[in-house]
Amino acid sequence: MSVHGAPQSGSSENRVSGFEDKIRRLQQITESLEHDEFNLEASLNLYKEGVELAAECRDELNKARHVVKMYAQDGLREFQSEEAKNEDRLEF
């Protein structure tokens, strides 16, 4: 099938790269599974592709979270606006 949400044949040769592209493909898959009618095999192939993409996105997010933790002094800190920082300086 050549519909935008249809299963891609040979999923490894048509792999989606880039986090944002993976998210877009996941959205296409979700819409297709919700609204289009495929036979059982095609639906399972779409579902499998979606699960694999979701796992890849989760891994990328975990890697990004790790990088943020590495670069943040003392780990992740609660965000404090400049206004709140200035108020803290004024209180003695």
**Kindly state the mean pLDDT as a whole number?**
79
Strand runs, count = 0
Task: Give a quick account of the main beta sheet: strands, pairing sense, barrel closure.
Answer: none
Q: What assembly state would you assign to the polypeptide chains in this entry?
A: single chain
Structural class: mainly alpha
For the record, the count of structural domains works out to 1
Query: What form results from the Cα inertia axes?
Result: elongated
Give the end-to-end Cα distance, rounded to a whole number of Å.
Answer: 70 Å
How large, in whole angstroms, is the Cα Rg?
21 Å
Question: Notable features of this structure?
Answer:
3 helices, 92 residues, disordered N terminus, mainly alpha, 0% strand, single chain
Compose a concise summary of this entry:
This protein has 92 residues and is mainly α. It has helices at residues 19-35, 40-71, 82-90.
In terms of topology, how is this protein built?
Layout: H1 19-35, H2 40-71, H3 82-90
Helix pairs in contact: 1-2
Can you walk through the features of this model?
The chain is mostly helical. It has one domain (19-90). Helix content is 63%, strand content 0%. The protein has helices spanning 19-35, 40-71, 82-90. The longest helix is centred in the middle third of the chain and has 32 residues, at 40-71.
